[in-house]
Design goal:
Blueprint: H1 6-9, H2 22-33, E1 40-44, H3 51-63, H4 77-83, E2 90-94, H5 101-111, E3 121-126, H6 133-144, E4 150-156, H7 164-167, E5 171-174, H8 180-193, H9 200-210, H10 214-227, H11 234-241, H12 246-258, H13 261-273, H14 278-297, H15 309-319, H16 324-343, H17 347-359, H18 367-382, E6 390-392, E7 399-400, E8 409-410, H19 411-416, E9 429-431, H20 451-456, H21 458-465, H22 472-475, E10 479-483, E11 486-491, H23 496-499, H24 502-516, E12 522-526, H25 534-552, H26 555-564, E13 571-573, E14 581-583
Parallel strand pairs: 1-4, 1-5, 2-3, 3-4, 11-12
Antiparallel strand pairs: 6-9, 7-8, 10-11, 13-14
Helix pairs in contact: 3-4, 5-6, 8-9, 9-10, 12-13, 12-14, 12-17, 13-17, 14-15, 14-16, 16-17
């Protein structure tokens, strides 16, 4: 007997042997047992998941000499003939080759005659969606009222192309894609029976490449069997098969997370030289980052990541080096890049630029953490502390990319060379105690000046506050004069909302105490705005850029930029805002 390929030798012969389709097997077995046989069935699903095999098993179950039985004997002449595709009562028709109305007329003529040996005449039409519209219309009448001895079984990978009038006359069964675990388990059985020996990593690579199709996996294994006699390592075997190995995907992800642009370009060139499908490689990367997202979420990751245990542990270590926000961005970039590769005539260049963009993407952090850091800075300013005295830590270190292409490193390590112990705590707000730390600014102890002396020394007070306290942004635009036993502070109209209430006066007293050694009494009044005269308009216009420049160079602004890792792009002066400047 001539050699049979694995896909034919290990084709299921009973419903119990069908892999990954329990809903279909159980329904058809119960229908046979209860004598509720439909006259037309539609099997739809991806390629290589068992549609035609189940159609043959159903034909055997109905025409078995010991049946009808949910479990055909596979020993009688009818079962053997159906298994070898030479039964006169079971006709397998290729829908792609018999698309016309003339073929359907011939089918309807032969359907009138009773079966030669079996109980039913079964018509199995594969890829039925390729029939023409006229051919479908010709089938409608016989599908509606077929002879009692005729059963139609349609198989298709594109059910949406079948007219609704045909779909409504059939019992429809959706065949599922097979999971990676089911495919690998079945491949292990085949390898064991054939006396071969391959590592699990190779079988997993074949299963991933099959993409849920058992027939594709068996075809790749068949090709692998031909190389089993040669002394080849795992990488060479997968390279010969044209299968994307897991190590290449892992190395690419490592290079992306480490910001190693050179390694990314080398991997893209290696994929092209090996003749691998760049789009398929991008799909594998997309699946890898999808797994990283599930592992990073932790809860519910089991069952959604079809990987060996040791590989899943490696994913957890990789996910710990980045944030969930960065993984989401990488995933979206890969989805868009896969579409660009599919439409491009230069897929290699598109893949190179995609990996290059991903490797140069700066690290992202969660919005919650950013808000907590801003809250910490705000609280620090209210208590008279410098923004750098307040710090928020995450439950894991924050990594940033090395522009030179090195590995990701802790942000505080990059500055000091020492690991930051505060990062071991879980989102704890750490603030230095004001009682144990020296004041943010102070003046040498001298006798407090009088109110007149303080007003006369007003400009020194303003200069002293610059780059030391946020109140300087308001005070530098105010005018001070003596009013009985108080300092009267004329405030521009644009700061009216910011200076209303006791908080501003309390802040003035704290800063005055730090500079003069005396709090003084303060009166806040509204400064008159000159609206007429060319010289006043020019003065107001010239004052705005100066204020914007001072605000941009303020120590609090610079420290906030440094802590948040932000970049100040523009400062706008808005007369309708209670603040002098607003950074964007």
């Amino acid at each position: 007997m001539s050699y049979q390929v694995i896909a034919r030798r290990y084709r299921p012969e009973t419903f119990e042997e069908v892999i990954g389709q329990p809903h279909v097997s159980r329904t058809l077995k119960n229908a046979i047992r209860l004598d509720r046989i439909a006259h037309a069935y539609l099997f739809s699903g991806a390629r290589g998941v068992g549609k035609t095999s189940v159609a043959r098993i159903l034909a055997k179950a109905l025409n078995c000499e010991k049946g009808p039985s949910p479990s055909p004997c596979n020993q009688c002449s009818n079962c053997r003939e159906i298994s070898h595709s030479n039964c006169v009562d079971v006709l397998e028709i290729d829908g792609a080759s018999n698309t016309g109305i003339d073929n359907i007329r011939e089918l309807k003529e032969t359907a009138r005659y009773r079966p030669a040996k079996g109980r039913y005449k079964v018509y199995i039409i594969d890829e039925v969606h390729q029939l023409s519209t006229a051919a479908f219309n010709g089938l409608l009448k016989i599908l509606e009222e077929p002879p009692a001895h005729v059963i139609f079984i349609f198989a298709t990978t594109e059910p949406h192309k079948i007219p609704a009038t045909v779909l409504s006359r059939c019992q429809r069964f959706e065949f599922r894609r097979l999971s990676l675990e089911l495919i690998v388990e079945h491949l292990k059985k085949i390898v064991s029976r054939d006396g071969a020996n391959f590592p699990d990593s190779v079988l997993y690579a074949i299963g991933r490449e099959a993409d849920g199709s058992m027939r594709d996996a068996q075809s790749l294994l068949e090709q692998l069997m031909a190389f089993s006699g040669d002394d080849l390592n795992e990488f060479e075997i997968l390279d010969i098969l044209g299968v994307i190995d897991r190590q290449s995907v892992m190395r690419t992800a490592e290079a992306i997370l480490a910001g190693d642009a050179r390694a990314c370009l080398e991997i893209a060139g290696d994929v092209y030289r090996r003749g691998l499908d760049t789009r398929r490689f991008c799909q594998h990367l997309c699946d890898h980052f999808r797994n990283l997202i599930f592992v990073s979420l932790s809860a519910g990751a089991e069952g959604r990541v079809d990987l060996p245990r040791e590989e899943e542990e490696g994913l957890r270590q990789m996910a710990a080096r980045t944030s969930l926000e960065s993984l989401h961005v990488f995933f979206q970039m890969l989805l868009q890049g896969e579409e660009e590769i599919r439409r491009s005539s230069m897929p290699k260049i598109v893949l190179e630029m995609l990996l290059l963009r991903m490797s140069r993407l700066p690290g992202l952090e969660s919005i919650d953490l950013m808000l907590e850091r801003l809250s910490a800075i705000e609280q620090g300013l209210k208590t008279g502390q410098s923004p750098s005295d307040c710090m928020i830590s995450e439950s894991r270190p924050a990594f940033k990319k090395n522009p030179a292409g090195g590995k990701a490193e802790n942000k505080n390590e990059a500055k000091t060379g020492e690991p930051d112990s505060a990062y071991e705590e879980d989102r704890v707000l750490v603030a230095e105690s004001s009682s144990s730390a020296p004041p943010a600014f102070s003046r040498p102890a001298v006798s407090p000046p009088t109110i007149s002396e303080a007003v006369a020394d007003w400009q020194s007070f303003v200069n002293f506050l610059e780059n030391r306290d946020a109140v300087w942004g308001i005070v530098s635009h105010c005018t001070a004069r003596v009013s009985e036993q108080s300092i009267e502070l004329e405030v521009p109209e644009i700061f009216e909302n910011s200076t209303n209430g006791p908080k501003f006066i309390t802040k003035l007293q704290e800063t005055a105490l730090a500079f003069w050694g005396e709090k003084f009494q303060w009166i806040i009044t509204k400064k008159r705005t000159v609206t007429s005269g060319r010289s006043s308009a020019r003065e107001q216009k010239a004052a705005k850029p100066s204020g914007a420049k001072n605000i941009a160079g303020h120590q609090a602004v610079q420290q906030a930029i440094e802590i948040l890792g932000a970049e100040l792009k523009e400062v706008k002066i808005s007369s309708g805002s209670p603040r002098e400047g607003r950074g964007k």
